[in-house]
Amino acid sequence: MGQGIEGNHSGYPRTDKPPIVDPAAFRLAQKAFTKSLMEHPQTKVYADYGTAAMTRMANGFGGLPTRNFSSGQFEEADRISGEFLRQVILERGGEGEPTHACMPGCTIRCSNNYADSKGTSLVSPLEYETIG
Ligand code: SF4
To answer: With a threshold of 0.90, does the pTM exceed it?
Structure first.
């Protein structure tokens, strides 16, 4: 039994969001969640070093996908770590940003913009999928 383009098993059309039953309560919960997220120490780490902050840790416990998952450790991991990327990006300046939000409203801001030696944006954000 397939799903039609206009519906799914929830009963709502695929293009519609489910209705918010109590918008005021939803906004309160949203505010509380954002506040606790912003106050969490790991959020500060991501805001400073991006998702690449996890590179050294993942490499340390053998969980950094390397050479098509044939190894969990990469001998050059320090050179793709969040700490190293941040240093290079800040030194180069220009369009580079050690972290930014890849979509409006994101409070984590774990993405980045890596620039070349002239400060011109060089590559799409370096994140887990491209680092690991
Ligand atoms: S939306 Fe982008 S910047 Fe925000 S947490 Fe997800 S990957 Fe990171």
So the answer is: no
